[in-house]
């Protein structure tokens, strides 16, 4: 089979990937892997076995695990008010993530909409979107493993009703508490929020003041009820509960009291430090690290990394950033295994996925082969459960 192994019934039952820099949990060493029936069967060293795929000294790492990405929404609406067919958007999103080395993704879908307020594009879509993802997964149309992440917008009109449309049978993996009320958390700087909603969503500058007053009123009326409903729903689904954009120690203490296990994008050192003190894992954006800072003016991911307060990276809005940021962290720390763990073992553990995220005997053969060209990681092979998908 020219280095791929033995085929039985059209499927490859065994493959050997050799002459690779294997990124193991605690070290990087030259060796080979034997893949059998979708799992890593053996980890070896020495000469390239006969019939193996020669990886030519490239890195071979666990498939990346992405807990929070807005990439699907970008495919659903590639330009303001330009809606794309959903199934086509899902397939394109899947292919893009696969090409970037992501083999498990928790697709972030917003629950909580504004149907009466100034922004007409903040409409409901979560239930039909989830149905379409699940259907495409059942049909075998997707290359990588897709799971569901519900982003619960507490500053909205319809959150409780939308949450009621989901149940344990949907396999919701993560529920995150989102509060995008301006003037706090991610948008403590109102001017940054104005740039975001007017630039990305086409709201007129003249209507901005009316819009933020509408959000303040909405938060006062429904925010507390919505937050409690989202916490209850996560428990009902059996999902991991996450916070979003914690800024103060007090906010982290509230998160801890709710049973939150993951903090997405804390905006200050104070919040990140409080997360670690309470056992909450910190996710930071890979684009923040690659760009050298937050686009919203919040804390730098690299600063948290240097303080030992960064556990997990997320691609957020740039899928290709995930592998690049992990490599940069590995180089910065002088420990490639540690850098790669922020996009593989650490997110897998946080999501309760014990069958992936590491190169180890018996684990899923979700793997990425890449080389460095001009300092940029270039993927040269992607495997999901032992099947080459890219």
From TrEMBL:
Keyword vocabulary terms for this entry: Hydrolase
GO function term, MF aspect, one: hydrolase activity, acting on carbon-nitrogen (but not peptide) bonds
EC number: 3.6.1.63
Keyword flag Hydrolase: yes
Gene Ontology BP, a term: organic phosphonate catabolic process
Protein name: Alpha-D-ribose 1-methylphosphonate 5-triphosphate diphosphatase
């Amino acid at each position: 089979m020219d280095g791929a192994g033995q085929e039985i019934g059209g499927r490859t039952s065994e493959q050997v990937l050799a002459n690779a820099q294997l990124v193991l949990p605690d070290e990087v060493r030259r060796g080979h892997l034997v893949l059998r029936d979708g799992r890593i069967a053996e980890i070896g060293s020495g000469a390239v076995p006969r019939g193996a795929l020669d990886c030519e000294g490239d890195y071979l790492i666990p498939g990346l695990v992405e807990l929070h990405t807005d990439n699907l929404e970008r495919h659903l609406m590639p330009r303001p008010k330009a809606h794309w067919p959903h199934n086509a958007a899902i397939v394109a999103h899947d292919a893009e993530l696969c090409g970037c080395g992501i083999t498990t993704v928790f697709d972030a879908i917003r629950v909580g909409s504004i149907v009466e307020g100034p922004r007409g594009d903040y409409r409901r879509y979560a239930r039909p979107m989830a149905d379409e993802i699940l259907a495409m997964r059942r049909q075998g149309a997707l290359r990588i493993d897709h799971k569901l992440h519900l982003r619960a917008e507490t500053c909205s009109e319809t959150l409780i009703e939308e949450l009621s449309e989901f149940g344990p049978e949907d396999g919701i993996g993560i529920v995150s508490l989102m509060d995008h009320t301006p003037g706090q958390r991610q948008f403590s700087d109102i001017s940054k929020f104005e740039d975001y909603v007017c630039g990305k969503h086409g709201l007129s500058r003249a209507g901005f003041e009316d819009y933020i007053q509408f959000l303040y009123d909405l938060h006062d009326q429904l925010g507390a009820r919505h937050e409690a409903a989202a916490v209850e729903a996560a428990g009902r689904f059996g999902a991991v509960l996450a916070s979003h954009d914690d800024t103060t120690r007090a906010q982290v203490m509230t998160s801890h009291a709710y049973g939150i296990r993951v903090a997405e994008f804390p905006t200050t050192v104070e919040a990140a430090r409080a997360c670690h003190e309470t056992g909450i894992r910190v996710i930071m954006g890979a684009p923040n690290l690659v760009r050298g800072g937050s686009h919203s003016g919040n804390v730098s991911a690299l600063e948290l990394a240097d303080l030992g307060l960064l556990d997990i990276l997320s691609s957020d809005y740039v899928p290709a950033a995930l592998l690049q940021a992990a490599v940069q962290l590995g180089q910065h720390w002088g420990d490639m295994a540690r850098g790669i763990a922020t996009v593989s073992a650490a997110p897998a553990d946080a999501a309760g996925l014990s069958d992936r995220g590491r190169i180890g005997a018996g684990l899923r053969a979700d793997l990425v082969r890449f080389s460095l060209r001009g300092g940029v990681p270039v993927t040269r092979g992607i495997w999901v459960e032992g099947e080459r998908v890219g």
